[in-house]
Structure formats: C-alpha cells, structure tokens
Amino acid sequence: MHDSFSDAATPVVSAFYDRFPYPGDPLQDGPPPGYNWRWCLRSVEGAVHGQVRPKENGQRPSRLLDAGCGTGVSTDYLCHLNPGAEVLAVDISAGALEVARERLRRSGGAGQVASLRQEQRSLLDLAGEGPFDYINSVGVLHHLRDPLAGLQALAGLLADDGLLHLFLYADGGRWEIHRCQRALELLAVGNGAEGLRLGRELFEVLPETNRLRRHHAQRWALDTVAEANFADMYLHPQETSYNLTGLMALIEAAGLHFAGFSNPSVWDPARLLEGELLERARSLAPREQWALVEELDPDISHFEFFVSRQPVHPESWTEDSRLLEAAGEVQPCLWGWPSASLLGPDLEPLTLSDQDLALLKAVEAQPGAALQSLELEGEIASTARDLWRRRLLLLQAPLGR
To answer: Is the bond preceding 338 in cis, omega lying within 30 degrees of 0?
Structure first.
C-alpha cells in the first residue's frame, strides 16, 4: 500500500473496511452462484453496442480492472466469466483483500484467467496500468472525498473502445438511510463494534409505527443481516449520493459518455404507467423518461450504468438482410443451458419455444457462421431478432461491416 494517499478519505475508509470487510457474501468452493452478465465482457458489449467484436485467432487477452474489489465477489465473477483474460483487482483495505484472495483460491477463479493480480492499491494510484478493455467499479467512487477525481482516474485507464461499469448511490431511495446515518452520527455511536450494536438497537427501540423502522424492516433487513453489510449501509464514514442530473454532470465533467443503464428495465416507464400516461411518457426523450421514473419511484437507491470514452451508437438490427449476414453467439450468462426452461442473464425464469431452442443450438454448433447459412425451418430473422432483444443471442456483424 502506498504511504501517500491520493484521496483524503482513504485512511479512514480503509480502516473501516478492515473492521468490516465488504461485501459480506459467504465464501464457497467452486464457481460463484448464478452468472451475472454485468461482469462478462462479451455480454456487456452485446448490451451496450448491440453487437460483439469478432473473435480472432491470436488476439491479445482482454484486460480487466476491478477497481475497488472489496472481498472479491466481483473479481470472482470477472475471472469465471472472462476465461483467458488478464485481471487486476485492487482495493485499499488489507482486510477485504485477505478475504478476496481466499475467495478466489477456493473458487478456482485464478485458474480461469491468463493472470490475476490482487493488490492493495487505490484506484487513484494506477497510472501506467492501462489501458483496460473493461473496468468494473461498483460501489466505490461514492466513498471517495472527491468522486470526480476517481472517475477521471478511471477514464485515464480505459481503452479508447473500452467500457466502464459503475454503481453510485441515488438520493431518492436513500432518504431513510441518510436520516438514520445522521441520527447515529448525532448520537456519536462511532463506526466500530459499539456503533454496530447501537445501530441495530436503534431499529429495535424505535416505535413499530416509525417510518424509518418500517422501511428498514421491509426493504433492508435481509440485505443487512451480515455485520459488514449493516455497517456499510448505516455507519460508513464517507458517502456521496446523486440525483440523475448530478450523475450526468459527473460523467460529462470526467470527459466520458453515458452508454446505458445496466438495469434498463428499472428505467422503463411501462414499469409504472399504462394507458394515456404511458403514451405521454413514451413521447419524451430518453433522458426525460428517466427523469420521470426517478420522480415516480422513490425506492431507486442506486444508479448502475456503463460509460465510454467515445459516444456509443448501438446497432439496432432492423434490416433483415444485415441481420441474416451476422453470426450468432449464445448468451454466456444462462443458467440451465441447453434447455427450453432456464434462467436468463438477470436470473429471470424463461421458457424457450422450439424455434428459439433450435436456433440457439444451431448457432452453438456452428460458431462464426452467418445466420442465413443455418439449416433451419421457419422465419430465422424474426426469431433471431427476438432472441437478441431478450439478450439470449449475441450478434456479430460480418468482418469489415
């Protein structure tokens, strides 16, 4: 660990996570449960760009950075979902890294990649380590005293065509959390063992009708069973949160471009509206639709999204001829494949039609083949487009297109 800290909050935050290594997910032998597509570069490319890059013989390994890896949950997925990659995972907490190294040892994650480094370093002190094709920094920047400096540092490490996945706190859905944090600060409980004890006691002694107690019981009680998770939510010594306008201003100030939410269904007005109100919402520009959802859903407690160095113009695959020239690839993040009944990339239950299943199996059997060359009955283009929209099929444009 460097003796000089690039962010004023680093020593305090590092000591906090040494006491409470986060996240508090249990260790396991073997691969992590489920397959989270947000940590799979191929899946992320497909979601952001609408297509994936061709796999070429002899191409260099993908370079991935887990910036603020904590106890290694994200690193574990990055290794298992990106075989052959070069992975650097850094965190400021020695205690969290000790757990992370044990997690990757037990899961076998290091054996899945070309190289894995797990180092006690700040994301602000990684000059010369880039460029990275994919940077994962989930729940980190909002714990810096200067989040913009952190985002600018990550931007400098990102390859020109790379992608950065971020998770930052949202003001609206943390209203109750912020009040509890301020109350515990006024009570001077601290952020050690005593603070943990008194923080839990707070939700036992508040009247059952109290909004803060009810909100915790209904929304966060299960998530904060682990001591580290409770401490991270209510006792953290350094935290910043954003509204949508502030978030977009942060991205712009860092010289980056918003490339889409990694939980897009949350930002779909159809989740909240119907009829004429939904029609009116659909007529709004995308950013106005998101602002509407932000106003209507006070439970949104975080933003999870992708950014890039260059503006993204995703492929829409509206032309059948172009679609049929593309090669297909089965979404890597499926549980239960090959089967007609499986879990999708967000662990949602799915049932595939006979045509869906036949196309995906044909794609898997003939990697790199154009869809139009597959010997299948029925309407290939419409089936492929539907599977692509459901993120079950990744598409690759012909070379040179």
So the answer is: yes
With a CB cutoff of 8 Å and minimum separation 6, the contacts of 266 are 293, 297, 300
For the chain, the domain total comes to 3
User: 4 in a domain, yes or no?
Assistant: no
Tokens 């912020």 belong to 178
User: What burial letters (b/e) apply to 377-393, b meaning 16+ CB within 10 Å?
Assistant: eeebbebbbbbbeebbb
Of the residues 188, 206, 234, which one is the last residue of a structural domain? 234
Q: Are 301 and 307 in contact (CB under 8 A)?
A: no
- How far apart, in whole angstroms, are the C-alpha atoms of residue 121 and residue 128? 13
Task: Give the containing element (helix H, strand E) for 3.
Answer: none
Instruction: Give Dmax over CA atoms of the chain in angstroms.
Output: 70
Q: 325 and 215: one domain?
A: no
* CB burial string 124-161: b at 16+ within 10 A, e below: bbbeebbebbbbbbbbbbbbbeebebbbebbbebbbee
Distances (CA, A) of 169 to 139, 173, 302: 8, 9, 4
Backbone angles phi, psi at 29, to 5 degrees: -90, 130
Give the span between the Cα atoms of 180 and 219, in whole angstroms: 14
Q: Structure tokens of 86?
A: 């070069």
On whether both 368 and 275 belong to a single domain, the answer is no
Give me the domain span that covers residue 225.
172-234
Tens digit of each residue's pLDDT (9 = 90 or more) over 361-396: 999 999 999 999 998 988 999 999 999 999 999 999
Domain-embedded: residue 401: no
Q: What is the dihedral of CA 375, 379, 385, 388, to 10 degrees?
A: -40
Which residues make beta-bridge pairs with 120? 91
Cα–Cα distance, 66 to 75 (Å, whole number):
6
- Based on the domain organization, do 51 and 166 belong to the same domain? yes
Q: Mean of the pLDDT values across residues 299-328?
A: 96
* Rounded-to-integer distance, Cα 398 and Cα 313, Å: 17
Radius of gyration of the chain (CA): 22
- Do 86 and 66 meet the contact criterion of CB atoms below 8 Å apart? no
Residue at a domain's end among 234, 257, 283: 234
Nearest of 150, 70, 165, 82 to residue 118 by alpha carbon: 70
Distance of alpha carbon 314 from alpha carbon 163, whole angstroms: 13
How far apart, in whole angstroms, are the C-alpha atoms of residue 141 and residue 150? 6
Query: Do 330 and 290 fall into the same domain?
Result: no
Assign 35 a pLDDT band (cuts: 50, 70, 90).
Answer: confident
